[in-house]
Amino acid sequence: MTDRTRRLILLRHAKAERSGGVVDELRPLALRGRMQASAVASSLRADELVPDEVLCSAAIRTRQTCELVLGGLGDAAPESVEYLDALYGAGVLDVLALVRAVDDRIRNLLVVGHEPAMSATAARLAGPESDPAGSARVRIGIPTAAFAVIETREPWASLGHGESRLTAVVSPGR
Predict the structure, then answer these.
(1) How many C-beta atoms surround the C-beta of residue 94 within 10 A?
(2) How many angstroms separate the Cα of 14 from the Cα of each of 21, 30, 113, 115?
(3) Distance CA 90, CA 165 (A)
(4) How far does the chain reach from its first CA to its final CA, in angstroms?
């Protein structure tokens, strides 16, 4: 990664409990989801994808995923974490608007959200030099606790359609 390269990590929350009559935003993680979140933390550390900043949906399952992932990173905590109502139910353009507002000093940005927005955003940003298998995967959707890694040399504010490179789709703990 060169000094100007930025990495956007789009993480789908870990496995949640079935609704059981609970409002969707309040669904907590299942035991399996808690294990998945720990595996995500290990994978981010191993792949040197520790975030400088995190944008996270305010839904319970995304908050819990985020907290477990960050707890698993140890001393490598991000500079800031924002829990945003806007990421719950967000579409691609909503996600991109939030990412475009990030300070350019941030090199590794983690967004913890929901499907189909996470995979659709990755598909939208993936340019012609992207990993073919990863590109195919994000076009059909990513499973719980999976993340897509997008690299760009553009400022966050300029992030646009097909200008970045999807380097990987990772499904730790499957």
Answers:
(1) 16
(2) 20, 8, 10, 11
(3) 22
(4) 28
- Give how far the C-alpha of residue 55 lies from the chain's centroid of Cα atoms, to the nearest Å: 8
Task: With CA atoms as reference, report the closest residue to 148 among 133, 129, 162, 168.
Answer: 168
Helix (H) or strand (E) holding 170: strand 165-170
Q: Which CATH class is domain 6-170?
A: alpha beta
Tokens representing residue 63 in the block: 């908050």
The DSSP element (H or E) to which 171 belongs, if any, is none
CA distance 22 to 1: 43
Print pLDDT tens along the chain (174 aa).
Answer: 446 899 999 999 999 998 777 788 899 999 999 999 999 999 999 999 999 999 999 999 999 999 999 999 988 879 899 999 999 999 999 999 999 999 999 999 999 999 999 999 999 999 999 999 999 999 999 999 999 999 999 999 999 877 899 999 999 866
**Which token pair is 36?**
């998945």
